[in-house]
Amino acid sequence: MKLTRYQFVEIVGIAGVMASLLFVGMQLMLDRKLAIATQYAARAESIKSDLRAEIESDVYLSARAVLWENRGKPSWWTEEFEQTNREYGLSSAENVALIISTNIAILQLDNLYFQYKQGFLTEEFWMGARENVKNSIRNPITRAIYMNRSPRLPISDVLDELVLELEAN
């Protein structure tokens, strides 16, 4: 069967329309993925902003320290944590500030992990961030805070994995 020029042009036109629709569909999927990642980052930043306000308020830190002293330490407060705490000579208010600043770091890390899983960060960048976290959780206080944070975030499984790696070494 021989195609006329008109039929050939129609086929090429149809193929062009189909290719452009495919491109638009791919672009919409990427835009959706980017919008979700942007929302995730904005939510994390909002929570971090609230935590920064807490850590900058002497009144808040003092009130939390009084509650800390009156209600007792959390269930995840281990003897290793207590010993390290004594070595550092941290007050209750300083412990509260440390917990808040560590929670800020966890939120930042969780956001990086989400961005990495979405394909917006390189493997090299993520592995560098992962190694930094692995080094920071060598400190028993930081490790206890990381491991006992609630609610569990997507990064929690990675943190569990890092602790297991440290314990294996």
Describe the structure.
The protein is mostly helical. The chain has one domain (48-168). Helix content is 81%, strand content 0%. The protein has 7 helices and no strands. The protein has helices spanning 5-56, 58-71, 79-88, 92-117, 123-136, 140-147, 156-168. The longest helix is centred in the first third of the chain and has 52 residues, at 5-56. The model has no long low-confidence stretch (mean pLDDT 87).
Strand content: under 5%
Radius of gyration: 25 Å
Q: For the terminal residues, how far apart are their CA atoms?
A: 71 Å
The largest pleated sheet is described as: none
Indicate the percent of residues in helices: over 70%
- Mean pLDDT over all positions: 87
Unreliable segments of 5+ consecutive residues: none
Total tally of structural domains: 1
Shape: elongated
Number of helices: 7
Written as H for each helix and E for each strand, in order along the chain, the element string is HHHHHHH
- The total strand number stands at 0
- Find the structural class using helix and strand composition: mainly alpha
Chain-wise SSE layout:
Elements: H1 5-56, H2 58-71, H3 79-88, H4 92-117, H5 123-136, H6 140-147, H7 156-168
Keywords:
elongated; mainly alpha; single chain; 169 residues; 7 helices
In short:
By secondary structure, the chain is mainly alpha-helical. It contains seven helices and no strands.
